Amino acid sequence: MKKKELMNHMKTSLLAGLAIFFLSCQNSNSEVKENTVAEKVELGNNTKAENGPNHTPWDELLKKHVDASGMVDYEGFVKDKAKLEAYLKTLSSKKPDKSWSREEQLAYWINAYNAFTVKLIVDNYPTKSIKDLGPALKIPLVSDVWHYKFFQIEGEDFNLDEIEHGILRKDFDEPRIHFAVNCASISCPPLLNEAFVPSKLESQLNSQAEAFINGGTRNKISKNSVQLSSIFSWFKGDFTDNGTLIDFLNKYSKVKIDQNAKISYLDYDWNLNKQ
């Protein structure tokens, strides 16, 4: 009897051990699957913020039709007009509110400015310059292309000037937006060939500032002399809130500029930034 009882006890222990082993394996596999799914969701949503639209369609269009130097294949955008308009429809359905983070709001408005600018060119392509578009009677700072209300957001008529000056400059105190919004012209800061997204907005703005200032064509930098884009003249106050213009440039310039360096400004080329 003792031998039989011992055998039964061993069988019971073995079965219990196997049960624990299989349960452990199942839990481990479940955790791996959950982690894998979570990773895929995180990677797949890198252009979708917690609030706001999914910027993936705009990201795909930019990667397809804008090269590394920021030059644009507008003929390609014309062919993909339906996809561009679908993205703009999403943007137009809801504008940012106070529940959105600062990064979400900035990414929305920068992408909106750039995407609606491309739409304006696409609707009037071919054209030599964005300045040729807009109302028939053009009065600078009153009825030029930037004051032309050619799109709506939440049913409200909008123009590009309202986004740049009435929202981005007015509400965010962020001088780097000048290197992010693109006016479809040669002298404008290059159009980034990816969408601005909240998760990496800071690095994107820094990269745009560095690329614009150090590019060698839109700004010409040396230790004792700088020939700058007219953007630094038009919006000088945006760059000098916390120091001199030279102080701002030295944050991003590869060449250390002397505080007494001679400053001049380059003519602005308004020709279309087409490939």
TrEMBL record:
Domain DUF547: 99-213
InterPro entries (UniProt xref): DUF547
Listed name of the protein: DUF547 domain-containing protein
Superkingdom of source: Bacteria
